[in-house]
Write a structure and sequence with these properties.
Length: 96
């Protein structure tokens, strides 16, 4: 799989999540710690599925994790519309 294929899957999962949960309106009402908790939960399920040998299910959960992370970033950007340009121009974070 190419990165484009994987990113397309993540975008499709975001569309599915928006249809199921209500999109930006609901996302923006969700506090950031709740997003982080969802991401941790889905990542934990991916770990369990991988440990069980169900790599297809683990992969599905990881796509959901990525889509949730995108939703969180989009929501943060909408909440801080004036500072998104600074975030876009930042060099990014480094591993600690």
């Amino acid at each position: 799989m190419t990165i484009r294929t994987v990113l397309a899957e993540i975008a499709a999962e975001r569309t599915r999540q928006d249809a199921q949960w209500g999109g930006a309106t609901r996302d923006d009402a969700l506090p950031l710690p709740a997003f982080v908790q969802l991401i941790e939960d889905y990542a934990g399920w991916a770990r369990v599925k991988a440990r069980e040998g169900s790599l297809v299910e683990a992969r599905q959960r990881l796509v959901q994790v990525a889509a949730l992370a995108v939703a969180a970033v989009e929501s943060l950007d909408r909440r801080s519309a004036g500072s998104t340009e600074a975030a876009a121009n930042s060099p990014g974070l480094t591993w600690e």
